[in-house]
Every structure is written in C-alpha cells, then in structure tokens.
C-alpha cells in the first residue's frame, strides 16, 4: 500500500515562500488523485488543493488561489505544493493525501 511522507515545512515571515514535498513509496502515486490539506490549531482540517492522477486538472481553495500551486512528478512519485505570499493565517500542519487510501504524517508551516 502507498505510504506518504511530507517535507519542506518550516518557519517563514509573511510574504515569504515555502515548497512542500510529499514523497510516496510502496505504490505508484500516478494511480491516484492527490491533494494537500491543512489543520490549524483549534480548527478543522480543510482542503487546500488537489490534482488529478495525470496532473491535467487542479483545484484549490479560495483562500490560497493565486498564491499556492499544486503539482506532481509521477516519475519521481512526488507531490508538491509551492506556497508564495504566505500569510499568518496559513499557519497550520499540512498533510498530503492520496484519495482515501493514505495520509502523510504532516509538516508544520508557521508564518509570522
């Protein structure tokens, strides 16, 4: 079964950028639609962005549209989230997920 591991989180000042990665193992990621979710302290987990199996279609939340870009490299079995113009309200633990099959452990993003 597929296993997911996120990386790339950290602390950044408002207006800065981060690039999250989600590496898959155990199964090819190209079989799945995949996405990024986040959960801020005291809030419910919310969807951030998703991308189709082939990479041709993406969707993103209104709160991040125009600032965050989701992409995937099926050859590297990796999902990415490029986050630009970060705001303090983007502070959360970010998770990647492959449909309802697998979730990563999360990576912390803190914007001050």
Structure described in brief:
The protein is an all-beta fold and 112 residues long.
Order of helices and strands: EEEEEEEEEEE
Mean pLDDT: 95
> Percent of residues in helical segments?
under 10%
Number of strands: 11
Shape: globular
Question: Which percent range describes the beta-strand content?
Answer: over 45%
Indicate the low-confidence ranges by residue numbers: none
Look at the helices and sheets and give the structural class. Answer: mainly beta
What does the main sheet amount to? 7 strands, mixed
- Measured distance between first and last alpha carbons: 37 Å
User: In terms of quaternary structure, what is this?
Assistant: single chain
Number of helices: 0
- Gyration radius over CA: 13 Å
3D structure, described in words:
The protein contains no helices and 11 strands. It has 112 residues and is an all-beta fold. Strands 2, 4, 5, 6, 9, 10 and 11 form a 7-stranded mixed sheet that branches. A hairpin with a 3-residue loop joins strand 9 and strand 10 (102-103). It is globular. The mean pLDDT is 95.
Describe the secondary structure blueprint for this structure:
Layout: E1 3-7, E2 10-12, E3 18-25, E4 34-39, E5 46-51, E6 58-60, E7 68-73, E8 78-83, E9 92-98, E10 102-103, E11 107-111
Parallel strand pairs: 2-11
Antiparallel strand pairs: 1-3, 3-8, 4-5, 4-9, 5-6, 7-8, 9-10, 9-11
Give me some keywords for this one.
seven-stranded mixed β-sheet, 112 residues, mainly beta, globular, 11 strands, four-stranded antiparallel β-sheet
